[in-house]
Design the sequence.
């Protein structure tokens, strides 16, 4: 083993001579690379799975009264809390139906948060009132049928599970201490739908709008109007048309599509990922100190050798190269081993934190492996710069005197 | 034997600035050594022998005065040019052999060759020089730590000669060897000088100095007699 680049060969031999020390130094880089890569992959996988979930409802537009802007953009639970709140009127709903009707389904949504009672169990839950003709086209049931009468409702799967609701179960809506209650019968269980911006049905009770108005009043005053588009590409057109029509005189409504929510969630996840990666980066900083220490030890131990090399005609630049090669080799070995471990450990981390490895092998996730490798190598080379510089600047006469 | 000076010192001084005050290691030394000479530099310790050798070996430059090596004023040369001069004009032999511990004997000799020619020795020159020094190809595969002092010094001479230098500088070349091995090394140096090599040797041993054809004495950094 005496390759053409003799300086490189000297670096390799020095590493081999101090094998254990070099392995320990490289181990620091391995840990740093694994930490950064797996944290990065975890963030990427979270972002990808949330994006995918949210993109699936990209065809939904939510029209809300201006000034009633829930922060998270979730379906407006309890938005009918007071009469003085802005609501969407029947006329406005008709306008929206006229504009957006040809692009998909338009429906007004009544919603209220209320106490419910099943047997002796009391809970708070969201009660939605919907046009019974619309229910079959926007909700899928896992069991039972859609509510036809004003005394029948369908319930979300989480609520059904918690309160042990089945087809035929009775629910009392309203708090008996505060006034009268209305008893309804469960006729259907809704399929799990997850988080959404139009309707959060998993823990809700959904009934005929007449039932809702019967309990809470406020007919023709909707908390929000949802538009389910047939074609996702119409979103921008419909949004603009609704805004142009309804906000002609003054800002009366706001139209939200999922993109804003997506943006805010991905940006939050991005910040979170950067933060955990920065913490992981601390391990790389520790590795850098360890590499620096090993390199300085190497220089100190080899002062005499450096003196010999310089006295027989080795240029400063070549001495510098010898130590930088040494750091780069340690970094390279550390990065390669780190990359292998990142894939394995990253997989476990993603499985544990995100719950699914569906996107693990996506380019946006795997890209963190080469990024972490490059960071590890650059860190290593940077830590080797000062030792290399100090080695090359040794006075050959002084260096030869060293024992 | 040509008569052009290969080393020429013109009132060369070297002053070390220490915290305790300035130390004059060489004091206005003027001297000329011609090609093919065998010169012994003698003097008590601290007389400036090693300083003189380091100046001639272009490891250091004078504080004042002019020092010409092979016609070049080293006081005006940049570090990389001085390093290049050590690589191809000067062969250096040290008292402690100074072989590179990571390399085998063969590689130690080949190292300056590769630095100069940017390629491995394919002509067999390294092997020939080692054989001339009595190091066979088996021994050449050993690391310096596996060789005796005499063998190490012979490898060091081979390394000094590999790039065909104009001057061979020897700093107490027999200082770490027994008398018999020392004599053998001196015979090699004498033979090289006879073949035309300029040899400048620092020693404090009059017997060793006896091998040289000219002796320079240094006392307190000054030339005593030449």
Sequence:
């Amino acid at each position: 083993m005496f390759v053409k680049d003799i300086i490189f060969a000297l670096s390799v031999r020095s590493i081999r001579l101090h094998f254990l020390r070099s392995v320990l130094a490289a181990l620091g880089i391995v840990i740093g690379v694994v930490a950064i890569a797996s944290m990065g992959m975890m963030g990427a996988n979270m972002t990808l799975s949330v994006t995918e979930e949210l993109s699936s409802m990209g065809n939904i537009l939510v029209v809300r009264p201006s000034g009633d802007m829930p922060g998270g953009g979730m379906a407006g639970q309890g938005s009918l809390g007071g009469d003085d709140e802005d609501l969407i009127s029947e006329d406005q709903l008709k306008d929206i139906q006229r504009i957006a009707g040809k692009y998909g389904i338009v429906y007004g949504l009544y919603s209220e948060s209320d106490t419910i009672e099943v047997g002796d169990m009391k809970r708070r839950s969201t009660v939605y009132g919907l046009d019974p003709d619309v229910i079959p086209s926007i909700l899928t049931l896992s069991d039972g049928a859609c509510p036809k009468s004003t005394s029948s409702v369908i319930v979300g799967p989480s609520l059904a599970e918690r309160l042990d609701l089945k087809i035929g179960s009775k629910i009392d809506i309203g708090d008996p201490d505060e006034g009268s209650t209305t008893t309804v019968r469960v006729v259907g269980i809704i399929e799990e739908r997850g988080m959404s911006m139009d309707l959060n049905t998993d823990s809700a009770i959904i009934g005929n709008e007449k039932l809702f108005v019967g309990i809470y009043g406020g007919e023709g005053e909707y908390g929000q109007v949802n538009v389910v588009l047939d074609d996702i590409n119409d979103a921008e057109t419909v949004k603009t048309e609704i805004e142009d029509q309804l906000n002609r005189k003054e800002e009366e409504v706001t139209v939200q599509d999922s993109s804003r929510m997506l943006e805010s969630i991905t940006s939050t996840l991005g910040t979170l990922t950067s933060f955990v990666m920065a913490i992981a980066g601390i391990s790389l900083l520790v590795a850098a100190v360890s590499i620096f220490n090993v390199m300085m030890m190497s220089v100190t131990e080899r002062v005499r050798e450096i003196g010999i090399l310089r006295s027989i005609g080795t240029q400063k630049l070549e001495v510098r190269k010898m130590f930088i090669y040494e750091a780069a080799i340690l970094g390279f070995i550390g990065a390669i081993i780190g990359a292998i471990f990142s894939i394995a450990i990253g997989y476990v981390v993603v499985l544990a934190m995100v719950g699914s490895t569906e996107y693990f092998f996506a380019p946006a996730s795997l890209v963190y492996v080469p990024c972490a490798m490059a960071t590890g190598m650059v860190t290593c080379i940077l830590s080797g710069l000062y030792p290399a510089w100090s080695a090359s600047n040794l006075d050959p006469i002084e260096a030869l005197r060293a024992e | 034997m040509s008569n052009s000076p290969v080393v020429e010192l013109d009132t060369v001084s070297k002053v070390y600035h220490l915290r305790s005050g300035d130390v004059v290691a060489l004091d206005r030394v003027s001297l000329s050594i011609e090609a093919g000479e065998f010169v012994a530099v003698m003097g008590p310790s601290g007389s400036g022998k090693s300083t003189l050798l380091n100046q001639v070996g272009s490891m250091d430059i004078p504080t004042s005065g002019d020092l010409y090596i092979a016609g070049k004023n080293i006081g005006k040369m940049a570090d990389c040019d001085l390093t290049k001069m050590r690589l191809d004009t000067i062969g250096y032999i040290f008292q402690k052999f100074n072989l590179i511990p990571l390399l085998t004997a063969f590689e130690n000799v080949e190292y300056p060759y590769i630095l100069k020619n940017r390629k491995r020795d394919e002509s067999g020159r390294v092997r020939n020089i080692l054989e001339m020094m009595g190091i066979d190809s088996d021994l050449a595969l050993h690391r310096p730590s596996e060789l005796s002092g005499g063998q190490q010094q012979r490898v060091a001479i081979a390394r000094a000669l590999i790039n065909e230098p104009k001057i061979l500088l020897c700093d107490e070349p027999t200082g770490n060897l027994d008398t018999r091995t020392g004599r053998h090394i001196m015979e090699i140096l004498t033979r090289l000088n006879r073949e035309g090599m300029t040899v400048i040797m620092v020693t404090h041993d009059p017997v060793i100095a006896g091998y040289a054809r000219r002796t320079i004495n240094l006392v307190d950094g000054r030339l005593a007699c030449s």
Observations:
- The radius of gyration of chain A is 33 Å.
- The CA atoms of residues 109 and 234 of chain A lie 22 Å apart.
- The interface with chain B takes residues 2, 4, 6, 10, 13-14, 17, 304-305, 307-318, 396-397, 400 of chain A (CB under 8 Å).
- Chain A has 13 helices and twelve strands.
